[in-house]
Amino acid sequence: MTDELNKKVINLFSASKNKKTKLCHNGDVCRNSDGYFYVSIKTDENGRHFDEETLLKRADEFYYIIKVLVKDGIQVFINNYKIPAGELLEFIKIYNEGKGEGQIIEVDKFFQDEWA
Question: How many other CB atoms are there within 10 angstroms of residue 29's CB atom?
């Protein structure tokens, strides 16, 4: 997403925290049946509809840095995990089930070539 689109999404969420949208059109803030807000994006910046195969291929190129807060007695530290996109949900599941050490506090998405 471009920076301009990111700002629009943030502004939409800020403006509609108390508003519930019934129909979800392109760019509208919507609320799903679980009560979570989302923005529906049906076309790219040029008005073209998305290509499923391209989106899925691009998603495989991402990886995530997961920051996990860990306490060891009075010491607190952060473990940073580099997780491929295809393994993200499985990794998070470990912590949701209470099997992982610590608590997930941040998730950042990166392209492979951005790793420093």
Answer: 20
Buried b / exposed e over 30-41, threshold 16 CB at 10 Å, is beeeeeeeebee
Inter-residue contact 87 to 64 (CB < 8 Å) = no
What are the helix (H) ranges across 17-106?
52-60, 88-96
Q: Is the pTM higher than 0.90?
A: no
10 Å CB burial of residue 98 (0-12, 13-18, 19+) is exposed
Spatial CB neighbours of 102, under 8 Å, sequence gap ≥ 6: 68, 69, 70, 71, 79, 95
Q: What is the DSSP letter of 35?
A: S
**In this predicted model, what pLDDT tens digit does every residue of 52-72 receive, in sequence order?**
999 888 888 889 999 999 999
